[in-house]
Design a protein that fits this description.
The structure holds 2 protein chains of 2 kinds. Chain A is built from 8 helices and 17 strands. By secondary structure, chain A is of the alpha/beta class. Chain B has 9 helices and 16 strands. In chain B, helix 4 links the parallel strand 8 and strand 9. In chain B, helix 4 packs parallel to helix 5 and helix 6 packs parallel to helix 7. The radius of gyration of chain B is 18 Å and the shape is globular.
């Protein structure tokens, strides 16, 4: 039976998992989301609260899906406070996805915070490939770090290295993840693909490092969204609509997005600077 | 790429009669340029108010299925000042939609934008009436008339009035618009509607009530255009539920000179506008019509 993905589906929270004191993963049954491509997102409605776009997280069982949120605003805090048995509405999955071209030899994934969600999904989707993976995870401090065990578990039996950068140096490298990236791409000529998702200024840093190299790049961009279906323009970045043309943009596209890392539209549509 | 179906009305010349309705992709100059490249005849901006508005909290849009949608965005827009800056170097065929709660607000917005390179203005009358609770501006013919007359004293650019199914008869408001100096009407706006989530026992939209758009609106829109065509002389832009060229033809036969599309883009994507223009051109050629004009109002006998 054809399901119209735009129509809200009410799903019940089956399980919750605390990743850190302020980050939680919610697990529910949903066939469409289970089959989402890495990088795709859902519009998630918390009844009588708000609706927000969230990247689809991985889940273990067939037909199961998940989202991971950090409590911050009304919607994410409401989601964080949900318990098993409560319901949310979802529509989607929407947007394009990271390319999973098996032709790459050595890929590097760099992200931070909940920006890791689509990267984890990408790793999980391609865990049977022979690509060597370097994964750089950035966080403010050790206590805000999550998905480390999960990534190691997904990548077990695979060739990979996992590097951590924290602002305060409480674990791993002390500094920005982009500093690690800079060192690595200078030393290792084999890296041919970089995927990134996280704060836009971090991704801008990634783009600046990669733009001088022959390495390919894909970045998942975040913008304020209302409709999720490409009609409201709220999420526009230059002439692109993040919800339907993205959220993933490649190096060539990013080079033409003068607003990337500089401007975003606020709720009223005014172009604000970062 | 331009699909030439030359369309003239109210002193305006468009490459084709397909116009992007207000509220759809209406706030970014870069997106306007993309729409122009795709082949739209014109674009109507988001309704611009004097001050920026954040609009309602999400959800602001709900899919009802079968290409029907419900939305209550709450007139989110960057405000006259920022939008005037956005379109400072405008080069696309653009109408600016105006929204306000009184005559003075409309005038102030027009003053900020009237010297820009735009085709004209469209009046959005679906702003809550300040003095008459539960009513919209468009339900008050006297106020509608005052707004139109005041705007016409400030600018010679064409002014279209968007009418709909409100508390006052659509023909009455359209006639008022014509008598007050409007250059055309757009018919129809969305119709107030609601969707309730039965699991959580609450309306889904943050604003509870929203505007219905999409296929369900089409036959009502066609009926309105048909009736308006008999009552007014100024051009009518048909709007509501258009999905394909047959729908465009239907609106034109009812009396529309041009049409606006919106919900279609939500279902079929931004490039569907190009398909629509192309199909329309192919139809006109196949039927050996020299222009769409030959078909305007032919359903009236």
């Amino acid at each position: 039976m054809h399901i119209d993905k735009n129509i809200l589906r009410i799903v019940r929270i089956k399980k919750t998992r605390e990743e850190t004191p302020s980050v939680k993963t919610l697990i529910f049954d949903d066939y469409l989301s289970h089959n989402a491509k890495p990088g795709q997102f859902l519009m998630v409605w918390i009844p009588q609260k708000e609706e927000i776009p969230l990247s689809v997280m991985i889940s273990n069982s067939q037909g199961e899906a998940a989202i991971t949120i950090r409590k911050k605003g009304l919607a994410s805090t409401s989601l964080f406070n949900l318990v098993e048995g409560e319901t949310i509405g979802i529509r989607g999955p929407y947007g394009n996805s990271f390319s999973t071209d098996p032709g790459f030899k050595h890929r590097l994934l760099i992200g931070g915070g909940t920006g890791l969600v689509p990267l984890v999904r990408l790793l999980n989707h391609t865990k049977n490939s022979d690509i060597f993976s370097t994964i750089i995870v950035g966080a403010r401090s050790k206590s805000e770090l999550f998905f480390i065990d999960l990534i190691s578990h997904i990548m077990q039996d695979r060739q990979f290295e996992l590097l951590i950068a924290t602002d305060d140096g409480s674990i791993g490298f002390k500094g920005y993840p982009t500093e690690l990236l800079d060192n690595i791409v200078e030393k290792d000529p084999k890296i041919d693909m970089v995927y990134t998702c996280g704060p836009e200024l971090m991704m801008k840093g990634v783009y600046e490092i990669i733009s001088k190299k022959t390495i390919q790049l894909e970045a998942s961009v975040e913008r304020y969204m209302k409709c999720g279906i490409g009609i409201c323009s709220s999420c526009s970045i230059n002439d692109k609509l993040v919800c339907v043309d993205g959220t993933v943009f490649n190096k060539g596209q990013i080079s033409k997005l003068s607003e990337f890392g500089r401007f975003y539209r606020n709720k009223s549509g005014i172009l604000d600077s970062y | 790429m331009v699909f030439d179906i030359p369309t003239k009305f109210a002193g305006i010349e468009l490459n084709n009669p397909i116009i992007v309705a207000s509220g759809i992709l209406g706030l970014s100059q870069s997106i306007f340029k993309r729409l122009e490249k795709i082949g739209v005849g014109a674009i109507v901006s988001k309704s611009i108010s004097i001050k920026p508005r954040d609009g309602y909290r999400n959800p602001t849009i709900v899919a009802l299925g079968n290409n029907n949608w419900l939305n209550a965005v709450g007139l989110a827009n960057p405000g006259a000042e920022a939008f005037a800056k956005e379109i400072a170097n405008n080069s696309v065929p653009l109408f600016v939609s105006l929204v306000g709660s009184n005559v003075s607000e409309y005038i102030q917005i027009v003053e900020k934008i009237k010297n820009h390179n735009i085709l004209g203005f469209e009046l959005n009358l679906s702003c809550p009436h300040v003095e008459k609770m539960g009513m919209e501006i468009g339900d008050d013919p006297k106020l509608v008339s005052d707004i139109i007359r005041s705007i016409k004293t400030k600018t010679s650019k064409p002014l279209f009035v968007k009418v709909g199914i409100g508390k006052t008869d659509v023909i009455h408001i359209a006639k008022t618009a014509e008598n007050s100096g409007a250059d055309g009407v757009t018919a129809i706006n969305t119709i107030r509607a609601m969707k309730i989530d039965i699991t959580n026992r609450c309306p889904i939209l943050e604003n509870k009530i929203g505007g219905l758009s999409g296929i369900a609106l089409k036959s009502i829109g066609v009926r309105c255009v048909y009736e308006l065509y008999k009552s007014i002389k100024i051009p009518i832009i048909g709007c509501g539920g258009i999905q394909n060229y047959e729908d465009v033809i239907e609106y034109v036969m009812a009396g529309a000179t041009a049409v606006q599309v919106g919900s279609m883009i939500g279902t079929y994507g931004i490039n569907s506008i190009q398909r629509l223009a192309k199909d329309l051109k192919v139809y006109l050629e196949a039927k050996k019509y020299d222009s769409l004009r030959e078909l305007i109002g032919v359903a009236h006998r």
